[in-house]
Amino acid sequence: MARDENGAVLIEAAFVLPIVIILLLGAVSYGMWFMAAHSLQQAANEGARAVLAGIDAEDRAAIVQDVVRDGVLSAGTVEAEHVSISTTQEGNSYTVAVSYDTTDTLLLSSSIIPLPPGPITRKARVHLSSM
Length: 131
What we know:
Layout: H1 8-50, H2 57-75, E1 83-90, E2 93-100, H3 106-109, E3 120-127
Antiparallel strand pairs: 1-2, 2-3
Helix pairs in contact: 1-2
């Protein structure tokens, strides 16, 4: 009876399989988090570049809203209704900040492995030419 090894692989798999599944889900969750962060950064960059076409502050804010919404929607990695956009101008520097609330995203809010807390926020800054 001591030399009988039938079923040993099954018992070993029962020990290892939960760990492998947790690591796999963690990798998928982090991949989604990084992909969302990258999409937000790209949208902020595009919004900041588009600001240069604006004539006044109101026109620039409208351009940023349109360009960032289009960029976020075209990426398909974040839900546009959970994205907030803010703009600030300090002197000749114009900053576009894009934030994504991850609390309603299933894989990002209920990950087995802890992800960075809070919303994902990314910024881009452009220097406006002095006229």
